[in-house]
Amino acid sequence: MHELNKGYNQWHGNHEHEDDHATPWHSFVRANLSGNDVLNKMILEIGCGRGGFSNYLINHKDQPSMIHACDYSETALKIGAEKYQSPKIVWSRQDIMSMTFESNSIDTAISCETIEHVPNPSRAIQELYRVLKPGGRLYLTCPNYFNFFGVWCVYRWLIGKPYTEGGQPYVNYILMPKVYHWIRQAGFIVEKFHSSELIMPARIPKHFYKHNTPRLLRPFGYRTYYVVRK
Fold first, then answer.
1. Contact between residue 138 and residue 111 where contact means Cβ atoms under 8 Å apart
2. How are beta strands 189-196 and 223-229 bridged, if at all?
3. % of the chain beyond a pLDDT of 90
4. Labelling 155: which of 7, 65, 79, 205 has CA 20 to 30 A away?
5. Whole-angstrom distance, CA of residue 126 vs CA of residue 188
């Protein structure tokens, strides 16, 4: 895990000046986030990166009481704390598979593109369930390799040129059916699920359904989005 931490410190340092909240996954959270999940609430953003979305949340029209902006990378947290100074944002280093928060202490949790970067995504989802209060919601996004793009990634791995999601130090090629199972196994109730970007690998990859795949194709979209309740 030390090498993983070192890798992510370097990765965030190389992306210091990039905007890290104008993304499809953050757009999903913005579009679906209920005011009841924000107003006067204790919010956890785990995998906050360099803090852009935590800063958005603290300035939401429905004011939260506090944001716990957490990441595994000290470099990411340092960049965020220096860039976005607010008494309502608490920056802390956390391992999503073993967080230091008390059980039933968080009103709303947000985890965008994080569980695929840890060795045990199922444990991460169980931890998110543990820290949420009963009735609290988790907004979860992650890629999905249960599709032709995943087959292409297996091929890349076999030839020694693994796909790294833009140079990430560690990628766990998770599958949508398994993620859905982990969510239900943890005890969550799925309130909303959809996917986007059906990718057909080629010399020039072809992308379909940029915003929302048809219902029958949802298990195969590359990007997956969940709103779940404890």
1. yes
2. antiparallel
3. 82
4. 7
5. 9
Q: Contact 209/147 with Cβ under 8 angstroms?
A: no
Q: For the segment 63-101, what is each residue's pLDDT rounded down to a tens digit?
A: 999 999 999 999 999 999 999 989 999 999 999 999 999
Tokens for 78, please give them.
């340092």
Residues whose CB falls within 8 Å of the CB of residue 139, separated by 6 or more in sequence, listed in order? 28, 29, 32, 33, 108, 109, 110, 111, 112, 226, 227
- The three-class DSSP label of residue 64 is coil
Domain span holding position 121: 2-229
- Residues 25, 34: Cα–Cα separation, whole Å: 16
Residue 28: CATH number of its domain: 3.40.50.150
Are 26 and 60 in contact by the 8 Å Cβ rule? The answer is no
Residue 130 half-sphere exposure toward CB, CA atoms < 13 A: 14
Angle 54-20-39 from CA coordinates, rounded to 5°:
20
Radius of gyration in angstroms for the set of CA atoms belonging to the chain, rounded to a whole number: 17
pLDDT digit string, tens, across residues 101-126: 999 999 999 999 999 999 999 999 99
